[in-house]
Amino acid sequence: MEPTENDDSAESDDSAEPTAFETTRRDGVVRLRRAGVEWLSSGADGGRWETDAAYNLSIPDGWPRTDLETYVDDRLERAGFDERGPALLTGVDIADARGARCGPVTAIVTAGLSNPAVLPMNPQGGALPDGDLESATDPGDPVGTVNVLVGTTRSLSAGALANLLTVAAEAKTATLLEMTGFPGTTSDAIIVGHDPAGERSEFSGTATVVGAATRACVRDALLEALRAHYDGSEISAPPSLEAAKYGLSTDVAADVFDLD
């Protein structure tokens, strides 16, 4: 994805449908757009949206926590985007965002790993987090995160749209585990969207066209986003949780029980 105002490379991708989502990157904001989309977002201002566009925004060093809705609105206005939509925030430079298309799916990913989260299979004991902080960082510190935007030209059932978020999360986790050993970060977020006017798909699991295309897009866009963020940079992906600037390990153990 080149930093142009309208970079729709579907025509050069034989595997992409000709009516793929449009991508735009400008002033620290990347937009994924198609008319009449229904979105489902796990972000701070998430839930279901019916609007044309979804966004990923980079936040600057020293960014103070503030009213997110007002902040996003101001950033979109300054970047020349007049469509409100679900938005994710990241400490990663939007110049490092990468996109992928496959069949009926388009994905955009940013990736940084300064705040990895690990899940040991033999927890040694610990406590639950104190409060509901969105990450393990001090307030105001922008951190790396893995943000994923996915759009499909298919029309999905309500269950299939919800499941698509799961499919995207699984692809993100599988890719990160293979490449870094981390399943994710403390602040990962995903937005998925579908076109209610498109060809109908009742399911979106990994054995479906939509599910398989989503897995391929998230994997390949994430791999390139990691390369863009770290290759040739003064920063590097942490080799371990202990080497990370921020991070979290879920060491608390749950009480397991049998069912009546």
Topology, please?
Blueprint: E1 22-26, E2 29-33, E3 38-41, E4 47-50, E5 53-58, H1 68-78, E6 87-90, E7 98-102, E8 105-111, E9 116-118, E10 146-152, E11 155-156, H2 158-180, E12 184-185, E13 189-194, E14 200-201, H3 209-230, E15 248-249
Parallel strand pairs: 5-6, 9-15, 10-13, 11-14
Antiparallel strand pairs: 1-2, 2-5, 3-4, 3-13, 7-8, 8-10, 9-12
Helix pairs in contact: 2-3
Structural class: alpha/beta
Number of strands: 15
Question: Which percent range describes the beta-strand content?
Answer: 15-25%
* Poorly predicted residue ranges: 1-14, 135-140
Give the N-to-C terminal Cα separation. 53 Å
Task: Describe the strand arrangement of the main beta sheet, using strand numbers.
Answer: 4-3-13-10-8-7
What is the C-alpha radius of gyration, as a whole number of Å?
18 Å
Identify the overall geometry: globular
Q: Please tally the helical runs, counting DSSP H or I stretches of 4 or more residues.
A: 3
Q: Quote the average pLDDT.
A: 88
Sheet having the most strands:
6 strands, mixed
Proportion of residues in helical segments:
10-25%
Order of helices and strands: EEEEEHEEEEEEHEEEHE
